[in-house]
Amino acid sequence: MPLVAPRLKVHHLTIHQNQLYHLLYTTHFTFHISHSQSAIMSQGFNISGYPGIASNVTYLSQCTPALCSLNYAVVRYLPNSLANAAFMGLFAIFLIMQIVQWFFYRTHSFTFTMSCGLILEILGYLGRIAMRNQLFVEGPFLMYVSTFSIQ
Questions:
Q1: CA–CA dist 138, 132 (Å, integer)
Q2: By the 8 A CB rule, do 40 and 72 touch?
Q3: Diameter of the chain by CA atoms?
Q4: Is the distance from CB of 141 to CB of 124 less than 8 angstroms?
Q5: In total, how many domains does the chain have?
Q6: Residues 95 and 37 reside in one and the same domain
Q7: Does residue 2 lie in a domain region?
Q8: Does residue 113 belong to any structural domain of this protein?
Q9: Same domain, 89 and 46
Q10: How far apart are alpha carbons 70 and 104 in whole angstroms?
């Protein structure tokens, strides 16, 4: 009997085990862009000549909302810096209030937990503020998403 790769049946779709392995472990998932556009997300790939990209832009890290379409950005909107700074300031005030209350009530574990959460909120809003200026690179977006997701 010949050796045959096992098959998985999923909603009338037949997938070989090696195809599933390739899909799970080698595919890079990106937000709101197609597979053909995901190749241009890296820093070293030349993107000049793509639709929605200005002629003087060579790499995605050089893009600004004036030069490149928001279809190539990490998110398709411009985060509001004023609102994000207001929320960051609000959470900073909450952090200061939490530390002040710790001196009066001596609730160590509660204060530590709340302080960690508030610091993560502040870092998340800091990432959103940085994302306003660096909309086409993933660093500030990952900072924003990861700090909000940990909570």
A1: 12
A2: yes
A3: 77
A4: no
A5: 2
A6: no
A7: no
A8: yes
A9: no
A10: 50
Burial class (CB in 10 A: 0-12, 13-18, 19+), 27: exposed
Question: Hey, which residues does 7 pair with through a beta bridge?
Answer: 16
Same domain, 13 and 62: yes
Task: Please indicate, yes or no, whether residues 64 and 122 belong to a single structural domain of this protein.
Answer: no
pLDDT at 16: 46
90 with 144, same domain?
A: yes
**First-last CA distance in the chain:** 53
Asked if 78 contacts 135 with a C-beta cutoff of 8 angstroms, the reply is: yes
Q: Return the amino acid letter for 92.
A: A
Look at the block and give the residue holding tokens 């998110």: 75
pLDDT in tens, the chain (151 residues): 455 544 444 444 444 444 434 443 444 444 444 444 444 444 557 888 889 899 898 888 888 889 999 999 999 999 999 999 999 999 999 999 999 999 999 999 999 999 999 999 999 999 999 999 899 989 999 999 999 888 6
Residue 95 belongs to domain spanning? 81-150
Q: Do 108 and 132 belong together in one domain? A: yes
CA distance 67 to 59: 12
